[in-house]
From TrEMBL:
It holds the Pfam family IGPS. Pathway: Amino-acid biosynthesis; L-tryptophan biosynthesis; L-tryptophan from chorismate: step 4/5. It comes from Halobellus litoreus. Keywords: Amino-acid biosynthesis, Aromatic amino acid biosynthesis, Decarboxylase, Lyase, Tryptophan biosynthesis. Belongs to the TrpC family. This is Indole-3-glycerol phosphate synthase. It catalyses: 1-(2-carboxyphenylamino)-1-deoxy-D-ribulose 5-phosphate + H(+) = (1S,2R)-1-C-(indol-3-yl)glycerol 3-phosphate + CO2 + H2O. Residues 257-290 have a biased composition (Low complexity). Residues 254-290 are annotated as: Disordered.
Length: 290
């Protein structure tokens, strides 16, 4: 185990070890992807919050398990206003599968993200999707390909790579490879703790032309407003949607009156500032987070 892995939570180390051993596809894929940035823009133009709703049967950070048909869940999410879907394909720890993703993508007309721990180029070819998650923290390490290698290999196949970061250093790596879609994970994979301030600290350093997502820890209408006010173009939400009535939860979180603020530090929209919904007023810290 290298020094970087030693700082990971045991559950995450187990997931990463399993990911290194997972095989890839039998042939190189050629994906005709549905545009995620276009879908985000269309949702925002319609006056709704762009949300990537996550079909997540279970995870190491949640209790219980949803055994509903993934296609039924996905359809309810889209009916509730989801801009895109995230489908877990990691089987051992999240109960996902490539077959679930294939079925969901065949059933809906919105972009679909493959949510998994992809660490080698061959693993890109396991299943077609519109977006593909690349977690910066787990790449450029022993036993994994580099972020640059996987990013270019994904683009060559037609995927839209979503590069996930948690620190300023990881953000700079994502920008260095030319990432056009970046997600800031509010969850520290070392401690599995969530801090929405992570997004607020990193967002001002992301160029406006990048499509920026806030991930993890978004559980309420107030959290949606907070992340949008900090500059999130879209939000990835799993547990808060999966816990209960999926369609109603999706509709509640996508119809929040909360416009995205400028990442240059400008104020949020008047609608956000005058809302009667309680919001977190933690001041933005634009210092580097390592």
């Amino acid at each position: 185990m290298n020094a970087s892995e030693d700082k990971l939570a045991p559950a995450v180390r187990s997931i990463l070890a399993t990911a290194r051993e997972r095989s890839g596809g039998e042939r190189r894929l050629d994906v005709d992807a549905r545009s995620f940035p276009d879908a985000v823009a269309a949702t925002a133009a319609a006056g709704r919050v762009p949300v990537v709703a996550e079909v997540k049967p279970t995870s190491p950070t949640t209790e219980g398990e949803r055994t509903d048909d993934p296609v039924e869940l996905a359809t309810e999410m889209v009916d509730g206003g989801a801009t895109a879907l995230s489908v877990l394909t990691e089987p051992e720890h999240f109960g996902g599968s490539a077959e679930n993703l294939r079925r969901v993508r065949d059933a809906v007309d919105v972009p679909v993200l493959r949510k998994d721990f992809v660490v080698r180029e061959a693993q890109l070819d396991a299943i077609e999707s519109d977006l593909l998650l690349l977690i910066a923290r787990f790449l450029d390490e022993e036993g994994t390909d580099s972020l640059a290698t996987l990013y270019e290999a994904a683009r060559e196949r037609g995927f839209q790579p979503l590069v996930e970061v948690h620190t300023r250093a990881e953000l700079e790596r994502a920008l260095d490879v030319g990432a056009e879609i970046i997600g800031v994970n509010n969850r520290d994979l070392g401690k599995l703790e969530v801090d929405l301030g992570t997004f607020e600290r990193l967002a001002p350093h992301v160029p406006e032309e990048v499509t920026l997502l806030a991930e993890s820890g978004i559980t309420s209408v107030g959290d949606v407003r907070r992340m949008r006010a900090a500059g999130a173009d879209a939000l990835l939400i799993g547990t808060a949607i999966m816990d209960g009535d999926v369609e109603a939860n999706t509709e509640r979180l996508t119809t929040v009156d909360a416009a995205r603020a400028s990442r240059a530090g400008g104020d949020a929209s008047e609608a956000t500032r005058t809302s009667t919904e309680p919001t977190d007023t933690t001041p933005r810290n634009t210092e580097s987070t390592q």
